[in-house]
Amino acid sequence: MELHGALNDFKRSQGEPRRFPGERRSTRGLFSGLDERLVHVAPDGSIRDYSYPLSGLAGVERSRFGLETDGDVRWFDADDVDQRYVDDTAVVETTHAVGDATCLQYDVTIGRLHLTHFELERGDELSGNVSLHACVGFAPEGRAGRVGQLWHGDAVEVHHDVERDFLAASTELSATGQVPERFAELLASEPADFPRSPTDDRYEEARLSPIAMCELELTGSTPSATIATLLSDDGDRAATLEHVRTAVAEHADRETVLEAGRDQARDRLPDPDRVGDGGLSDLRALALLRASTGARIAGPEFDPFYRYSGGYGYTWFRDDAEIARFLLAADRRLALGLEEWHERSARFYAETQLSDGTWPHRVWPYNGALAPGWAHGRLEGGESKEYQADQTASAAAFLATYLRRVDPDDGQVRETLAAAVDGLDDSLAADGLPERVQNAWENMTGRFAHTAATFLEAYAAVAKAPVDDALAARARERARTVYDAVDDLWVPERGIYAMRTDGDDVDDRLDGSTLALASAHREYAALEDVDGERLDRLVSHVETTIDGLYRNPAGPVEGLARFEGDPWRVRDQDAAKIWTVTTAWGAHAAVELGELLAASDREESAAFDERGRDLLALVGPGGPLRRPGGYLPEQVFDDGTPDSATPLGWPHAIRLATASLLEASGSPARADAEDRAPLQD
User: Fold this and answer.
1) Is the predicted pLDDT of residue 613 greater than 70, yes or no?
2) What whole-number distance in Å separates Cα of residue 635 and Cα of residue 32?
3) Is the pTM for the entire model greater than 0.90?
4) In this structure, how many other beta carbons lie within 10 angstroms of the beta carbon of residue 525?
5) Mapping DSSP to helix (H, G, I), strand (E, B) and coil, where does residue 484 land?
């Protein structure tokens, strides 16, 4: 996002109770892009790239489309609009009401190419010749200045240095440049109109602008046209021009655009008949966030200036590895054919591991390079505690499961996993708990129950993996050590495990991340018995945490808050916001604990199973936390307004895995037993 757009949004959004001024939101609209480009289609039909983390290319920064008749341009707006995905594809259909006429817009992103097709169904008000106006602002390499345009007759090129962005159309195209906002306009109290007036007294600025103003005819008995944008960094102008010209000519009608989307979906997504109710929406959301390396961004970047957060368009090894594990579990139950996804995840983790066996805070998904972060303590000198050890544990747990379930002979993964255990050991204190580190929510340091849970699960997973006997025995012993030490975090007065200890202080707030203890103990139970007292405490902890974090405000939503007293991004709301990830986590923890209890013939099992189903329904199809397109936003306000990264990958993966467990034939415990058993058995 360049500064012009951020400042305009800041002016438009100031004083709104549910918007954070200056952000580039995706809480409304739908995304297209199952390859290396991610394009958002807003309700008004405007398109914008969120592609940089996935491809290293910035692309379209802003746009607007409209129809001209009799010299009057009617720009599309967000009113009287219907938007949906076409069938099981990532093709976005947007229906615009233009007077008494209807204009259908279809958007699909294939590789680095984005196609936007318009088809007009006339009304009495739109007679005679109708032309399409497209105002598209690019930001090659994220630049708004020192950008130039080349006009190739039937195509426009916007360039800075390496990145070159092209626009072409299926019908005759006329183009010029449009001057961006000047300093006085940026400083004015009101936002500048977009597109702006074409009158200007400096003709050369049209060539030195990132904004292309285009007009093209809609042709045919049902007037239509296709616009294509293509992002490039290969330096071969002639080949790229030929590519975009050929692409737009071959997709000049609605059916060819739709068929391109169908072919892409067949190639990139599993058979929709295999995934169950809502599963395809989860997989589509996760595919949208995935780079060609296999790594995923946490969510589309809505805050590139770090105004209200630390950014979201990066790969965290916690989120990504948890997603990878949940996908592996769902794939085993539903036979989704995601082997290539699992393999690329394992390869990416192997290639990005640090020399000490740990993983950094976050990296760029398209190339694995270190990304800006605030928890790169392992890369800094001194004894920094700004390190999130749970990320290394999550990556290790996935790699161990990958060896056990996908490729036990993968030598590179074996080496990576052995080094990861060294990294975990280095963060394990003498008392059996992880030392002082940052937490999963990245907002405090201490010794956390969630970090301990991830260590327990990782060590148990390694102990079951097809690794050498010495490593397996070492991991088993470490798992037993952490298992014993977990009780040091028990708070008898509240019947829960503490969020953290901070020196001699015990922070006994309820924390959704501590629900990870349920899955960790179920993993450990495949190695050794979980004793009755521990089961009693887990029952109390999970029950108390879900009950205490559960919110059912006077509005359309309900679910779990992140932790007790969470103040983040609440605006003028009195209480903590509801989070989809903790709601889905609560569902998964309840089901996992139910299965652990069932294995011990505990009568509480059925109640936790039912609680899990109830929570899952909140993030499932038709649930109050699910948005159009099946998206799960990170957070929602009490009035139902979604906020923050949308869609957020983590809850989609948790929901899919939990639903696949509950929907498995027969008893969930027995249906999932094979998934928990060692490979050699």
Assistant:
1) yes
2) 22
3) yes
4) 18
5) helix
